[in-house]
Each structure stands twice: as structure tokens, then as C-alpha cells.
Prior knowledge:
By secondary structure, this protein is mainly β. The protein is 8% helix and 28% strand. The protein has helices at 15-18, 129-132, 156-159, 219-227; strands at residues 31-32, 37-39, 48-49, 59-63, 68-71, 77-78, 85-94, 106-107, 110-111, 114-122, 139-148, 171-174, 190-195, 206-211, 215-217, 257-259. The strands form 2 sheets. Strands 2, 3, 4, 5, 6, 7, 10, 11, 12, 13, 14, 15 and 16 form a 13-stranded mixed beta sheet that branches. The protein binds 3,5-diphenylbenzenesulfonamide and zinc ion.
Amino acid sequence: GAMWTYSGPEGQDHWPEHYPYCGGTFQSPIDIKSELMRFDPTLRPIQVQNYNLAPGEQLTLGNNGHSIQISLPHTMHISSLPHRYTAAQLHFHWGSRGRAAGSEHVVNSRQSAAEMHVVHFNSDRYPNVSTAVDKSDGLAVLGVLIEVGEFNPTFEHFLKFINGIKYMGQRVQIPGFNVRALLPARLDEYYRYDGSLTTPPCYPSVLWTVFRDRVTVSHQQFLALATALYASSAQDSAPLPLNNNYRRLQLPDSRTVLVSFKE
Ligand SMILES: NS(=O)(=O)c1cc(-c2ccccc2)cc(-c2ccccc2)c1
Ligand SMILES: [Zn+2]
């Protein structure tokens, strides 16, 4: 991946030195506290289309040195927002072995074990994700908080291939699966705010939707995510484990978090 890391000399305190937006306003993630929340009755349930992929739909599962990511077909999209937001990729942020606290968004100071982001771009306005990534209405990311608990069979569709992408730059093709099953049951209860990419270049271009309901993975599945991957390449003499890949909480900057539910 690029020259940034989550800790050390290129860690997140240094991101603004090369990526000025990272030191700017409207940054993500934030602690979604009750005092920032305001109920908004106009917030409709999230509607996703074509998330149930056929096994014949090949997806690229890769290790980009900062996360595990799955490329998504452009048939997948969100249809309930003012513009059509077309899927680009999904990826994860997590803690480490013995530290099931690696989500980026935090709710009333409660951090979850991990978090999934499904990244979409405004395909009504922009031809591709690269032109959308730095536009204020460019991206919509769905955030799913992940706890350790019940085994999650849907995670197996990609976790079973994780040993094939241990090192940065490695990728494998995997069969399509029902990505909708990675989301929580209720898509009508969520937090909504304007924020940014949580990785460099930290563009303030993201309409964030963080679902209220969490999903679970088993402890063994969490360990696979937290211990199988390296941020370094296969040739590197000093293997660098890929874990704790979550950005620290950013200032709310007087932002309001809209919520789609009353209590
Ligand atoms: N965490 S995030 O959702 O803000 C995010 C979005 C995108 C992203 C992806 C496609 C188009 C536009 C933005 C890429 C990353 C990323 C994660 C690990 C390593 C490098 C980049 C992270
Ligand atoms: Zn992310």
C-alpha cells in the first residue's frame, strides 16, 4: 500500500504531513454520542439492489497492505439516496489478538471488535470512483459494526481464502456470494453524518451511514481476521502484522448525527 501506516513514523499523527485533508475538518471516524444525535423522520430505510451475487460472479479478494478488500460489481447499488450510489468495494478494520476493539466508529464511547465498510460512488454524477473520491457528494459508505459472538457463516465466503492473501499485494478470485447477508437485518435504523475517508487522503467526501444493529463473528473468525494478514510483502525480511488498522476518533466539529430511529 501507499506510504502511510496506522502507527510508527508514518502513523496517523503524521498523515497530515503528506495528506493535508487528514488534518482538516469533517473527518471520520467519530464517537457517535447521544448529545450529537437528532432524530430525522425523513431518513428512509436503506435499499440495496443486486447485493445477492451468483457464485459465477467472480470477485477479487485482496490484501492492499492496509486492509482486506473485496471488489464489487457495478450492478450493486444503493437506490434509496437522492442519487444512485454504485458499489466499488468493501473492506474491514479490526483490532488484534486479545484486543477485540478495532471498529472505527464508536457509539456512546463503546468501540466494537471490528467494522465493515461498503464503499459506493455517486454514479449519477461521476463516471467512476476515482473522479468521485474527492467530491463532496462523491461517496456513500455503509458502516457495519462487528462484535465477537455467534459464528457468521457469510464471513466464510471470503475468510476461507484468507491464507491465499497473507501478504501485501496478493489477491485471489473468489465466487460471488450474498453480500446482503453481511449487513444487519434492519437497514431502517442507522446513524447518518457527513464525514471523510478514514484513510489517507482523508477527503471529506463521504456520506456516512452506520447501522445501529451490529453483526457478530465467532472468536475464531475474529482471530483469523486479526492474525492471518501481513502489511508487508511476501519477500520482506521483517514481516509486519496487519492489525489495529483503525483510525483514532476525530473531532465532531459541531456536526450533528442524524438518526433514523426514535429510541
Ligand atoms: N475507510 S474508508 O471507507 O473511508 C476507505 C475508502 C476507500 C475507497 C475505496 C474506493 C473508492 C473510494 C474510497 C479506500 C479505503 C482504503 C482502505 C485501506 C487501504 C487503502 C484505502 C478506505
Ligand atoms: Zn474503511
